[in-house]
Amino acid sequence: MKKIMTALALSASLSVQAAPIMNFFELGIAEGQNTAYYQVAQHNIQTSIKNEKGTLAMIALQSQNNPQLGYMLELYVDEAAYQIHKKSPQYQYFLQESPKILTDHKQFTPLTLQFWADKTFTPS
Questions:
Q1: Is 123 inside any structural domain?
Q2: What does the alpha-carbon distance between residue 115 and residue 122 come to, in Å, rounded to a whole number?
Q3: At the N or C end, where does the chain have fewer CB atoms within 10 A?
Q4: DSSP the chain
Q5: Residue 8 falls inside a structural domain
Protein backbone atom coordinates (compact mmCIF):
# COMPACT_ATOMS: atom_id res chain seq x y z
CA MET A 1 0.00 0.00 0.00
CA LYS A 2 2.84 2.37 0.85
CA LYS A 3 4.38 1.84 -2.63
CA ILE A 4 1.04 2.57 -4.30
CA MET A 5 0.61 5.79 -2.32
CA THR A 6 4.16 6.88 -3.16
CA ALA A 7 3.56 6.18 -6.86
CA LEU A 8 0.29 8.13 -6.79
CA ALA A 9 1.95 11.07 -5.04
CA LEU A 10 4.79 11.10 -7.59
CA SER A 11 2.33 10.89 -10.46
CA ALA A 12 0.32 13.79 -9.07
CA SER A 13 3.41 15.94 -8.57
CA LEU A 14 4.57 15.31 -12.14
CA SER A 15 1.17 16.23 -13.56
CA VAL A 16 1.14 19.65 -11.87
CA GLN A 17 4.67 20.57 -12.92
CA ALA A 18 5.06 23.06 -15.72
CA ALA A 19 5.66 21.65 -19.17
CA PRO A 20 9.24 21.57 -20.41
CA ILE A 21 10.15 23.94 -23.23
CA MET A 22 11.93 22.53 -26.28
CA ASN A 23 12.98 24.73 -29.19
CA PHE A 24 14.53 23.96 -32.56
CA PHE A 25 16.25 26.67 -34.61
CA GLU A 26 17.51 26.54 -38.19
CA LEU A 27 20.02 29.31 -38.77
CA GLY A 28 21.76 30.52 -41.90
CA ILE A 29 25.45 31.07 -41.25
CA ALA A 30 27.00 33.92 -43.21
CA GLU A 31 29.73 33.06 -45.71
CA GLY A 32 33.10 32.82 -43.94
CA GLN A 33 31.53 32.99 -40.46
CA ASN A 34 31.38 29.29 -39.53
CA THR A 35 34.23 29.52 -37.01
CA ALA A 36 32.78 32.65 -35.40
CA TYR A 37 29.33 31.01 -35.21
CA TYR A 38 30.82 27.88 -33.65
CA GLN A 39 32.68 29.93 -31.01
CA VAL A 40 29.65 32.05 -30.07
CA ALA A 41 27.35 29.00 -29.99
CA GLN A 42 29.82 27.01 -27.90
CA HIS A 43 30.16 29.88 -25.39
CA ASN A 44 26.37 30.22 -25.15
CA ILE A 45 25.87 26.49 -24.64
CA GLN A 46 28.68 25.85 -22.16
CA THR A 47 27.88 28.92 -20.05
CA SER A 48 24.14 28.21 -20.05
CA ILE A 49 24.56 24.57 -19.00
CA LYS A 50 27.02 25.56 -16.27
CA ASN A 51 25.12 28.56 -14.85
CA GLU A 52 21.41 27.98 -15.51
CA LYS A 53 19.79 25.28 -13.40
CA GLY A 54 16.70 25.20 -15.65
CA THR A 55 18.62 24.77 -18.90
CA LEU A 56 18.62 21.01 -19.33
CA ALA A 57 20.21 20.57 -22.76
CA MET A 58 21.53 22.62 -25.67
CA ILE A 59 22.87 21.02 -28.83
CA ALA A 60 24.47 22.78 -31.81
CA LEU A 61 24.37 20.90 -35.10
CA GLN A 62 25.56 21.59 -38.63
CA SER A 63 24.11 20.32 -41.88
CA GLN A 64 26.28 17.73 -43.62
CA ASN A 65 24.94 18.89 -46.98
CA ASN A 66 25.19 22.65 -46.45
CA PRO A 67 27.85 24.06 -44.10
CA GLN A 68 26.03 27.40 -44.11
CA LEU A 69 23.11 25.89 -42.15
CA GLY A 70 23.33 25.51 -38.39
CA TYR A 71 20.76 24.04 -36.06
CA MET A 72 20.21 24.54 -32.34
CA LEU A 73 18.13 22.29 -30.11
CA GLU A 74 17.31 23.57 -26.62
CA LEU A 75 15.51 22.01 -23.65
CA TYR A 76 14.42 23.96 -20.58
CA VAL A 77 12.66 22.73 -17.47
CA ASP A 78 9.85 25.27 -18.00
CA GLU A 79 8.97 28.67 -19.49
CA ALA A 80 10.52 30.53 -16.55
CA ALA A 81 13.86 28.82 -17.19
CA TYR A 82 13.66 29.76 -20.88
CA GLN A 83 13.02 33.39 -19.98
CA ILE A 84 16.01 33.35 -17.60
CA HIS A 85 18.17 32.07 -20.46
CA LYS A 86 16.91 34.77 -22.84
CA LYS A 87 18.05 37.44 -20.35
CA SER A 88 21.46 35.85 -19.71
CA PRO A 89 24.69 37.65 -20.69
CA GLN A 90 25.81 34.80 -22.96
CA TYR A 91 22.53 34.81 -24.89
CA GLN A 92 22.61 38.60 -25.16
CA TYR A 93 26.14 38.26 -26.56
CA PHE A 94 24.82 35.71 -29.10
CA LEU A 95 22.15 38.22 -30.14
CA GLN A 96 24.74 40.99 -30.39
CA GLU A 97 26.98 38.88 -32.65
CA SER A 98 24.14 37.44 -34.76
CA PRO A 99 23.99 40.23 -37.37
CA LYS A 100 27.67 39.59 -38.18
CA ILE A 101 27.57 35.78 -38.26
CA LEU A 102 24.05 34.86 -39.38
CA THR A 103 22.04 35.50 -42.53
CA ASP A 104 18.38 36.47 -42.60
CA HIS A 105 17.51 32.76 -42.75
CA LYS A 106 16.22 32.04 -39.26
CA GLN A 107 13.49 29.52 -38.57
CA PHE A 108 12.15 28.87 -35.06
CA THR A 109 10.11 25.77 -34.28
CA PRO A 110 8.74 25.17 -30.78
CA LEU A 111 8.45 21.45 -30.09
CA THR A 112 6.37 19.37 -27.68
CA LEU A 113 8.38 16.84 -25.73
CA GLN A 114 6.64 13.47 -26.04
CA PHE A 115 9.14 11.05 -24.53
CA TRP A 116 12.59 11.31 -22.98
CA ALA A 117 15.32 8.75 -22.34
CA ASP A 118 19.05 9.31 -22.42
CA LYS A 119 22.48 8.09 -21.49
CA THR A 120 25.39 10.21 -20.42
CA PHE A 121 27.23 11.19 -23.58
CA THR A 122 30.14 13.53 -24.13
CA PRO A 123 31.09 14.10 -27.77
CA SER A 124 34.78 13.93 -28.57
A1: no
A2: 21
A3: C
A4: -HHHHHHHHHHHHHHHSPPPEEEEEEEEEPTT-HHHHHHHHHHHHHHHHHH-TTEEEEEEEE-SS-TTEEEEEEEESSHHHHHHHHTSHHHHHHHHHHHHHEEEEEEEEEE-------------
A5: no
| Nearby residues of 107 by Cβ (< 8 Å), 6 or more positions away | 25, 26, 27
Burial of 50 per CB tally in 10 Å (0-12, 13-18, 19+): exposed
Per the structure, the count of domains in the chain is 1
> What CATH number does the domain containing 59 carry?
3.30.70.100
Q: Which of 91, 105, 102, 106 is nearest to 32 (CA)?
A: 102
pTM of the model: 0.80
The pLDDT tens digits for 39-82 are 999 999 999 999 999 999 999 999 999 999 999 999 999 999 99
With a CB cutoff of 8 Å and minimum separation 6, the contacts of 112 are 22
